[in-house]
Amino acid sequence: MQCHPLELLAPARDADIGIEAINHGADAIYIGGPGFGARDKAPNSVADIERLCRHAHRFGARIFVTMNTILRDDELEGARRQAWQLYEAGVDALIVQDMGLLQLDLPPLQLHASTQTDIRTPEKARFLQDVGFSQMVLARELDLGQIRAIRAQVQEATLEFFIHGALCVAYSGQCFISHAHSGRSANRGNCSQECRLPYTVTDAQGRVIAHDKHVLSLKDNDQSANLELLADAGIRSFKIEGRYKDMATVKNVTAHYRLLLDGLMERRSDYRRSSSGRCRFTFTPQPEQGFNRGGTDYFVNGRKIDIGAFDSPKHAGLPVGHVVAVAEQHFDVDTGDATLALNNGDALTWWDRQGELQGVPINTVEPLGGTRWRVTPNLHGNQEAQSVADLKDLRRDLALSRNRDMAWERLLAKPSAERRIAVDLSLAQTWVDGQPGFELSLKDEDGHRGVARVQHAHEPARDAKQADATLKDQLGKLGTTIFEARRVRLAWRESTCFLPASLVNQLRREAVSALEEARAQAFERLPRARPVEPPVPYPEDTLSYLANVYNGQAAAFYAKHGVKLVGAAYESHEELGEVSLMITKHCVRWSLSLCPKQAKGVTGVQGTVRAEPLVLQHGDDRLTLRFDCKPCEMHVVGAMRKNVLKQLKAEPMTFYRTRPAARV
Q1: Where a domain ends, among 346, 380, 413?
Q2: DSSP characters over 411-439
Q3: Which residues contact 196 (CB under 8 A, 6 or more apart)?
Q4: Does 345 lie in the same domain as 290?
Q5: Per the database record, which ranges form the Peptidase U32 collagenase domain (predicted)?
Q6: Looking only at Cα atoms, what is the longest distance across the chain?
Q7: Considering the entire predicted model, what is its pTM?
Q8: DSSP code at position 459
Q9: Any idea what the CATH number is for the domain that residue 257 is in?
Q10: 591 contacts 567 by C-beta, under 8 angstroms
Q11: Angle formed at CA 555 by CA 154 and CA 67, multiple of 5 degrees
């Protein structure tokens, strides 16, 4: 039976967070480099990435760097140079979107297809495998059957899937609202998150269906219950979203999924870890403690109606009780749970009468006995609040939640995990350069060996039983190394020998150093996949702006693979009229129970509901929702703001040198 490695892939905003993600069980880290990453506020120097690589590789873990923006022609050379710098720093793979990079003289690094490449069909996935991608992250919108269909076509490349974190409402790479409304391109790493804004929804007759609701905002992804199903469908890399997330969140979520995957592999002999070492945590992981909008498993088990975070895109927190009394400068809270304590610096939230999320930080809390607490809020951050009475709709019997728990944050600010590789130690009598001595051999869980020898007389111990116990205890003290003793064996040829503690410590240090060196020497870089020759045809022969082609090398790539007509990316400003600014599997009609499919078979309703367009309005921005019911998709249609087009600087491009002449 084949044993498949399962990879837990964690995000890192910086190298220090990446190191802690490794310590908390990640098999691989994805992180931004100095430039060209789809999170432009999370860059990292090559030196910091090299430091992260050194730490990760000690455990056999991998480092993937994101270079997944679309590039202009004048940026390609800089991207090529950066790729070589990252290769020299020890990086294991590049995550890319722009096919122009495949035309360049890149180092022999593995290439992974970014979520921005929008992989939702077996044909697209097979094409990416055949042009040289070794790993690809599938669209979040896929269900288990679609994943299995892709696995049937893709046997050589590793399939990756997001299992936790924020959800982009659009198919990744298929959202241009940010660029149209703000000039900030999601495909260039600078999304303005227009999807999290409140919109008023009206129908074709102008009737208001929803007022100031965040109808494009989704709950957060949580596949905790589906890991085994995903693995059985063909997923081998389980990806956590969050290259902007803080240290505590990454520690917490990584530890949570580490425990779940370890439990799966303990039950199933056909799955194994893809890196070395076991983790111990000083805390019990609670993903709900971090920023979240509520959880959904999205479309993995089919379409569901409750995937939206329509009331607020903010973190509402966890229930902590209710208000029992309100005074001018404080209010009293009953948690109803003797184990639940409030802390100075916590933040509380509640829903006002209009359904809007309100909140206030705590200045101080005072226990009143039992499960009651007196809360003095910090009103200085709210210019409109001079007293508790000014806090909107804060009243007796109001349910409260907590979205910042200082005790939790203090817990995770401390060292909260250790990762250790199991080793077996064997101490034996031997001869060193013709003189009596001892040999200490270490063998780790992966089969690597480290050996140290020292000359010393074979002096018999006075108390053999006590001497053996002391020696085993001393040898097993691996301290702050990355190793822990699984077994300690004393292989005496004759009687038990006496060794001074200083000699035991020397042998152990040298053997550990030798084992680390052996692991480093055995570490192999991931092989670069070779593209199929002759070049395989792309599944389509015509590409529109939706293909995100922004440079001449990308256009040449598609031409080489049989595409006859290649449109320019939306960022090139060739599409100035109304177009699909977003394509999404999320359906506002379905979520508001206005879908014809929902009415099917319902007496008196069937036939009265049609998939007519709806309108979204936010300020002066007006977007049209059009529904493509056959694939069950929604298009958000609009045009680029004229003021945005005027403000954008002209960018050097050689792919489309001139725009078509304006029609008179």
Answers
A1: 413
A2: HHHS--EEEEEEEEEEEEEEEETTEEEEE
A3: 214, 216, 217, 313
A4: no
A5: 402-519
A6: 106
A7: 0.95
A8: P
A9: 3.20.20.70
A10: no
A11: 65
> What is the pLDDT confidence band of residue 171, given thresholds at 50, 70 and 90?
very high
Residue partners of 643: CB distance under 8 A and separation at least 6:
none
Cβ burial 549-582 (10 Å sphere, 16+ → b, else e) = bbbbbbbbbbebbebeebbbbbbbbebeeebbbb
Domain shared by 289 and 319, yes or no: no
Residue 574 lies in a domain: yes
Per-residue model confidence as pLDDT tens digits over 429-465: 999 899 999 999 999 999 999 999 999 999 998 899 9
* Contact between 98 and 554 (Cβ < 8 Å): yes
The boundaries of the domain holding residue 85 are 4-167+219-275+283-295
Q: Indicate whether 505 and 632 sit together in one domain.
A: no
One domain for residues 399 and 503: no
Single-letter code of the amino acid located at 284? T
DSSP strand pairing (621-628 vs 565-566): unpaired
Which pLDDT band holds residue 495 (cuts at 50, 70, 90)? confident
Q: Is there a domain that residue 175 lies in?
A: no
CB 504 within 8 A of CB 488: no
pLDDT value at position 608?
Answer: 62
Query: Which residues are within 8 A (CB) of 266 and not within 5 positions of it... i.e. 6 or more apart?
Result: none
Which tokens sit at 541? 């022969």
Q: Match 């140290």 to its residue by tokens.
A: 452
- Say whether both 512 and 395 belong to one domain: no
Length reported for the chain: 664
Distance CA 343, CA 361 (A): 10
* Closest-CA residue to 587 (of 600, 599, 597): 597
Mean pLDDT estimate for the chain: 94
Helix axes 46-58, 15-23, angle to 10 degrees: 10
Number of compact structural domains in the chain: 4
Q: How far apart are alpha carbons 402 and 357 in whole angstroms? A: 12
Q: Where are the beta strands (DSSP E) in 560-613?
A: 565-566, 579-584
**Token duo for residue 535:** 């070049």
User: What single-letter amino acid sits at 84?
Assistant: W
| Tens digits of residue pLDDT in 466-478 | 999 999 999 999 9
In DSSP terms, 439 is beta-bridged to 428, 453
Task: Please answer whether residues 7 and 237 qualify as being in contact, where contact means their C-beta atoms are separated by less than 8 angstroms.
Answer: yes
pLDDT digits (tens, 9 = 90+) for 120-166: 999 999 999 999 999 999 999 999 999 999 999 999 999 999 999 99
3-state secondary structure of 64: strand
Reference 158, options 111, 100, 121; nearest CA is 111
Q: Does pLDDT of 663 surpass 50?
A: no
Task: Name the pLDDT band for 664 (thresholds 50, 70, 90).
Answer: very low
* Backbone phi and psi for residue 171, each to the nearest 5 degrees, phi listed first: -55, 130
34 and 88 co-located in one domain: yes
- Angle formed at CA 119 by CA 116 and CA 124, multiple of 5 degrees: 125
Are 239 and 354 found together in one domain?
Answer: no
Residues 562 and 614 in one domain: yes
Query: In the prediction, which pLDDT does 499 show?
Result: 92
CB-count exposure of residue 362 (10 Å: 0-12, 13-18, 19+): buried
Query: DSSP labels for 607-658?
Result: TT-----EEEEETTEEEEEEEETTTTEEEEEE---HHHHHHSPP---SSS-S
What does the alpha-carbon distance between residue 79 and residue 71 come to, in Å, rounded to a whole number? Answer: 9
Residue 535 lies in a domain: no
Quick check: is 603 in a domain?
yes
Q: Choose one of 413, 446, 481: the last residue of a domain.
A: 413
Label residue 494 by pLDDT band (50, 70, 90): confident
Which DSSP helix (H) or strand (E) runs through 410?
Answer: helix 406-413
Q: What is the pLDDT of residue 607?
A: 61
Q: Domain containing 401 — which CATH number?
A: 2.40.10.170
